[in-house]
Amino acid sequence: MIQKTNMKINVHHLTRVEGHGNINVTVRDGKLVDARWEVVETPRFFEAILRGKPHDLAPTLTSRICGICSIGHTLASLRAVERAMDVEVPKNAQLLRLLAKHGETIQSHVLHVFFLAAPDLLNVDSVIPLIQSHPAVVGVAVRLKGLGNDLCDLAAGRTTHPVSLVVGGLSKAPKKKELQAMRQRLQERLADVATAVEVFKGLALPDFVRETEFVALKGESSYPWIGGDLVSTDGVVKSEDDYLAMTNEYKEDFTTSKFTKLSRESFAAGALARFNNNYEFLCKEAKETAEMLGLAPVNHNPYMNNVAQLIEIQHVMVESVEIIDELLAADLDDVCAEYEVKAGQGVGAVEVPRGILYHDYTIDDQGSITKANCIIPTTQNNANIHHDLPELVTQQIELGKSDEEVTKLCEMLVRAYDPCISCSVH
Amino acid sequence: MKYLGIDPQKVRVGVFDFTGCEGCELQLANKEDSLLDFLSLLEVVNFREVSSDRGDDYDVALIEGNISRADEIDRLKDIRAKAKVLVAIGSCACFGGVNQQKNRFELDDVVKEVYGDHKVETDKVKRIADVVKVDLEIPGCPVSKEEVERIVVNVVLGAEIKIPKYPVCVECKQKVNTCVVDLGQICLGPVTRAGCDAVCPSGKVGCLGCRGPAEDANFESLKQILMDKGHSDSAIVERLRFYGAFNGTVG
Amino acid sequence: MDYRLPKQDINTEPFMRQSPRYNRKDVFMRTDKAYKCEITNIVELTPTEKLFHLKILSDQERRIFEFRPGQFVMLEVPGFGEVPISLSSSSNNSEYVELCVRKSGRTTNMLHRAKTGAKLGIRGPFGTSFPMEKMAGHNILLVAGGLGLAPLRAPINWVSEYRDEYKDVHILYGTKDPDQMLFTYQYEEWQKVDHIKLLTIVEKANKDWNGRTGMITDLFKDIDIKPDDTFAIVCGPPVMFKFVCDHLDGLGIPMNRMFVSLERRMHCGMGKCCRCMVGSTFTCVDGPVFDYWSVLNLKEAI
Amino acid sequence: MIHKVITKNEFKKFVDGLIEENQTFGPKQVDKRADGSGIYQFKEVNSYDDMDLDYTVTYSSVKNFFLPFREELSSFDFSDKGWDQTVEYRVNPRVIIGVRPCDINALNILDKILIGGAYPSPYYMARRTNTFLVGMDHEPLDDCFCESLGHDTVHRGFNLFCTDIGDKYYLTISSSKAFGFLKNVKVADPVNGDSVKFHERRKYLRDSFKTKVEVAGLPSVLDIEFKSPVWKKWGDKCLNCGTCAMVCPTCYCYGIEETIDVNLKSSRKERVQYSCNLVDFAEVAGGHNFRPLKEDRLKYRFYHHYRGFAQNADDPICVGCNRCGRACLARINPKDVISDLQMED
Ligand SMILES: Cc1cc2nc3c(=O)[nH]c(=O)nc-3n(C[C@H](O)[C@H](O)[C@H](O)COP(=O)(O)OP(=O)(O)OC[C@H]3O[C@@H](n4cnc5c(N)ncnc54)[C@H](O)[C@@H]3O)c2cc1C
Ligand code: SF4
Ligand code: SF4
Ligand code: SF4
User: Fold this and answer.
1) A162-183, pLDDT tens digit by residue?
2) Which pLDDT tens digit goes with each residue over C135-158?
3) Domain for residue B93, yes or no?
4) Fewest 10 Å CB contacts: which of A350, C188, D182, D276?
5) Within 13 A of D280's CA, how many CA atoms are on the CB side?
6) Distance between CA atoms of D281 and A182, rounded to whole angstroms?
7) Among candidates A187, A183, A178, A198, which has minimal Cα distance to A137?
8) For chain D, counts of helices (H) and of strands (E)
9) Helices (H), strands (E): how many in chain A?
10) Å from CA of C72 to ligand 1 middle
């Protein structure tokens, strides 16, 4: 085995991720000199734009922070507004919102696992050649993604940039007939998940471990999605309102995205973090899948995030059926609460596909936003990616891997976090 | 069309994103029941979000997002030079989208608000057409996949593309929706170009005009109607300026 | 207890006072299903106009299809659109019809790319026609501007075929520039064989043009018109036919002996879509051929 | 025409019977306006109690059950050498309950145009003949003016018509199907008292109209006022949104759209409900628009409605339901426009 002495990796505008970022690694005389994850996405300054906005336009506006998790942003924004003004959201509206959220989780996770990550595991550039070479897998992916999108359409009016999620609840509830049909589809599609699990069993994910702190919402009686306490695998517990102490944002000059930290120099959020913190609340079927795919809490291999996503897809599908059952038994005529505009401050924390998302607004007595802060999961993960890279490269040069192999592993590492870069530079 | 003796031409496309949320690009991978047929009409040579293939030999460049930094101008001009047809997709690319709301503030002020004392490079938001020649605009926030499909089919066949000239109300009425103006909301449907199947009013929220003005739209009348119903001038203007699509027509 | 409605009820309910004139399915087909035809020949007339020979494929349908000069068909290019096009061939030609089409939009652009052998559909014929029999025994003045020669070609063919029945026949034809002249290959035949006097004029000459330049009405100076013994057919854009008809009116030709063909947007050809309304008149069923008096009485006709 | 009476209880049984066996539509409140008034539409119903039969008037008319907003006229399947056209106009039989007299009269007008002319529409006919229509009278709204146009009562065009005479409905049966179905319930021949009540009800309804529109001589007024400044006054308000035509029970103008499917193997030809108020209604290839101004287009709708078209023997096609006036955000309504025009005289 020949020791590689010099190495220069320079991935400009990494592909198959949302947004623009670069990987830069320099190894000289067998020693790592520099390894960094640079976010070069152009910032859009949503927090600045939000100032002066009527509160009811904030969810519509912030939905546009991200095309993939727009429902998550809308929900976090709504939660911030509603908590600032003490709006009580009707139970059924909460259920419908969660259903929309689940649709997004399915859609986003499927997109990531199958369209963005799988090509690496199958050694192709994109999903397109897989249409010919692996039609069954592509079929599964397309059907599941369609299911996720349709679930969003049904519950929120549209999958990208939802329309019917409004302050107070929902402007329009789906018809029971449609819910009934969706319930059936969800159950039928579980077979596709089983197929996907079979496929994944046969794929080897890179073996890389770095001790990491994982941050997620804390479930009380179920796997957490909207609101609640914040926890970490290092034992930190904080309230939702105390999110700033959980994120500790700071800025580095080489990247347009901010970085965050908690007990260590960085932490991770997302599917794996949720899994590591809330394993007990997964449904039976999802736990079985976890066992089959060799994932158990607390797992420190970032590449396993893909597996955690697959497990979550299954979990939310099962949970969606339960939610629909509850909705079918309920009266869906009125799913929006009236509310009084008043001044206040509120935080909304929501587990979106890539981790915890926080929106925090201060609203004046006219209902206009005076101050806004949004902390995006990818912002939280960026630092962790940045700190994973040197460790990964060091381990790999010790194993004597080639430039190409290391480059690919670096790319796959970033992709494993499913970063939503434009989101992180909102 | 074979029956006419015309062979459909697969289009070689490049998809490029600038400042935006990438929601429009995402639509290209949506509408699963016809996705595979849709993809078979295209040869994707460059689409960073879903593919590592980075070809330069595209005929049609789909541009998402707007321009808000100097390096983007160069990248866009380079794409323009290579593409035969340049299509702006989405409200950001066509009108500036929500991002142009930044232009109402001083640049220094927005940077300071978000990044404090750190230096971050940013410019006023520009539409794609402000920087290079645009051959076709497909508005929407996000674009409607149905419309994109229809347009791609016509491009492949070399047929003229028709987009509605009438306002959203037509589609809204066809869906037998309750008019949200009757419910006390502001709706820009009467002045906004149809083609979205009135998604927003169908979800019982007022249209915000992401598709830009309909032809011969009557802004004065709509404004008068809404003010008569008790909505404030500022609330109406706030909505008209939401996507930047009416900036030429409202103050 | 039985409340079930019968599965399909194609017969009318007795409560409907207007019993349909046709309620046999095969008759419906004529208006809603196109006759399939094949392009048997394409003649490129100008860079923007082509003449298509269309043969109706079914023998039976070909036999049914009869038309009169001035009528039009709805030409279907499946998937792209359906457009009204004047029948430009002889009404005695039962083998194929000729349609002269200008490339001007979605449907017609596609049509221009079609090759011989392509299959199209036609419905029709629709609309009113020129009263050719009534004109017999008189002088005929055929005036066309630009693409107006396309609808005029059917009456020209008629007159040629029944030449003995008419007295003097004149064609006055004007276009913007010489390149736009249609059917130039037929001029000699019209003049030599059919003894029709043809006068042409262009607004803007080019170097190959050694004919006249000017407006179409300039041509009237060159011919001798007997107002009380002349019928006129004028086809062209509204400004042009108004100009010509007013001129002829000045000469003393009664307005009900001048005929024009109107053009409006059309989607059905059957008086239903209302796109072709002029005032309260349907261009498709009450027209496209109108006498000039009626046109003057139509609101917003010109 | 046969008359019977039925108690309201028996009627409910009758309606539930129809609903049980057939796809049925009836009036339902779908929303409340900001001012508290109800918005009704014809929706699919599952039982008698699902309906709001004492509704005032629906926001959209029943027209769209016969002329859907979007309707496939035919489809083409392509092959390398050619294509095949498929034309289908079968519809599933259905029942519509609670249709108002003016709406039925509107259908009679559409019958005249779409079935009576030289080219009867098989699509419309199929829908019309396979719909079992139960009419029902009602008290007019303040702005209804169908009485002015003689459309407040209806004599044909329905299977069954119900007039509320207190605890019973006075039934007008005009189809054998209706007669047959009624055998399932208890109906009685009207006794003298019933007929008296029936006539009283008619008179009461007729006297309840608050809005009157003078329509005599309207065709010539419209011809004369073709260039009137009144059109500009109202045209300036018009949004050209087509709402009026979409909700109108008689507006029938349409456009054709052809779309090729994404697989390039087939295409669809659809009829799409249009409105003469829409900007490109009269636009032709090359971009020339025969009605370039808002006022031209607005005028045209009035022209069609009150001047009448040849297909309809030049009779007005407006039935006076004032749906357009109610739906128009710009508050453009027939009564005000017509009285403006008549003032011009
Ligand atoms: C009675 C009559 C006879 C005609 N005869 C001829 C002829 O012989 N040769 C010829 O080249 N043209 C003729 N035209 C004009 C021809 O119909 C239009 O050029 C054609 O419809 C344009 O269709 P398009 O799809 O290419 O254009 P687009 O602009 O894409 O039109 C879209 C649709 O609008 C309608 N439309 C647009 N323009 C017109 C128009 N001018 N007239 C009617 N409908 C229109 C059609 O339904 C068409 O499908 C005639 C028109 C009429 C009314
Ligand atoms: S809701 Fe909006 S789009 Fe719909 S009819 Fe009313 S104004 Fe028009
Ligand atoms: S209704 Fe308006 S805001 Fe909504 S998608 Fe359509 S054009 Fe855009
Ligand atoms: S009259 Fe009213 S409803 Fe009709 S198009 Fe004009 S604004 Fe719209």
Assistant:
1) 999 999 999 999 999 999 999 9
2) 888 989 999 998 999 999 999 999
3) yes
4) C188
5) 15
6) 40
7) A198
8) 12, 11
9) 15, 12
10) 11
The terminus-to-terminus CA distance of chain D in angstroms comes to 44
Per-residue model confidence (pLDDT) at position C23: 42
Q: Taking Cα atoms as reference points, which of D335, D326, D309 lies closest to residue D116? A: D309
At C301 the pLDDT is: 63
Residue C17: is its pLDDT beyond 60? no
Chains A and C touch (3+ CB pairs under 8 A): no
Whether residues B90 and B122 share a domain: the answer is yes
Rounded to whole angstroms, the Cα distance separating A371 from A345 reads 9
Nearest CA to ligand 4 atom 6: D238
Residue A118 is inside which H or E element, if any?
helix A118-121
Number of Cβ atoms within 10 Å of the Cβ of D30: 17
Q: How far, in whole angstroms, is CA D39 from its chain's centroid? A: 17
Q: Residues B57, B59, B64, B68: what is their CA dihedral angle, to the nearest 10 degrees?
A: 70
Give the fold, CATH level 3, of C10-126.
Elongation Factor Tu (Ef-tu); domain 3 (2.40.30)
| Interchain contact, B6 vs C113, CB within 8 Å | yes
Would you say D3 and D173 are in contact if contact means Cβ atoms under 8 Å apart? yes
How wide is the angle at C-alpha D24 spanned by C-alphas D41 and A324, nearest 5°?
75
Preceding amide of B142 cis, omega within 30: yes
| pLDDT at residue D344, as a whole number | 67
Range of the domain at B204: 168-241
pLDDT classification of D116: cutoffs 50, 70, 90: confident
* β-sheet bridge partners, residue D206: none
CA C173 to chain centre: 16
Sheet holding C72-77, edge to edge: C81-86, C72-77, C119-126, C35-44, C49-56, C97-102
Contacts of D161 in chain C (CB under 8 A): none
Same topology, domains C10-126 and C132-296? Answer is: no
Does residue B146 share a domain with residue B89?
A: yes
pLDDT in tens, C62-85: 888 888 999 999 999 999 999 999
Higher pLDDT, D295 or A230: A230
Counting as contact any 3 or more CB pairs under 8 A, the partners of B are A, C, D
Domain-by-domain residue ranges, chain A? 46-424
Q: Tell me, what amino acid is at D300?
A: Y
Q: What is the pLDDT of residue B54?
A: 77
CA distance C237 to C260: 10
Query: Tell me, what amino acid is at C125?
Result: P
Q: Which of A418-422, C100-104, D123-127 has the lowest mean pLDDT?
A: A418-422
Separation CA D24–CA D42 (nearest Å) = 10
Interface list for B 115-174 with A (CB within 8 A):
115-116, 118, 120, 122, 141-142
C148/C125 Cα distance (integer angstroms): 19
Tokens for A191, please give them: 């077979």
Fold (topology level) of C132-296: Rossmann fold (3.40.50)
Q: How deeply is A274 buried, as exposed, middle or buried, from its count of CB atoms within 10 A (0-12, 13-18, 19+)? A: buried
Say whether A73 sits in a helix, a strand or coil.
helix
**In this model, does residue C25 exceed pLDDT 70?**
no
Is some CB atom of chain A closer than 8 A to the CB atom of B111?
A: yes
Q: In chain B, which stretches have pLDDT less than 50? A: none
ipTM of the complex, rounded to two decimals:
0.89
For A113, the closest chain B residue by CA position comes to B50
Neighbouring residues of D300: CB distance < 8 A, sequence distance ≥ 6: C277, D276, D277, D291
How far does the CA of residue B73 sit from the closest CA of chain D (Å)?
34
DSSP sequence for A329-359: TS--S--B-------EEEEEEEEETTEEEEE
Class at the top of the CATH hierarchy for domain A46-424: mainly alpha
The Cα-based distances of C137 to A114, C91, C132, C153 in angstroms read 82, 20, 10, 20
SS3 D132: strand
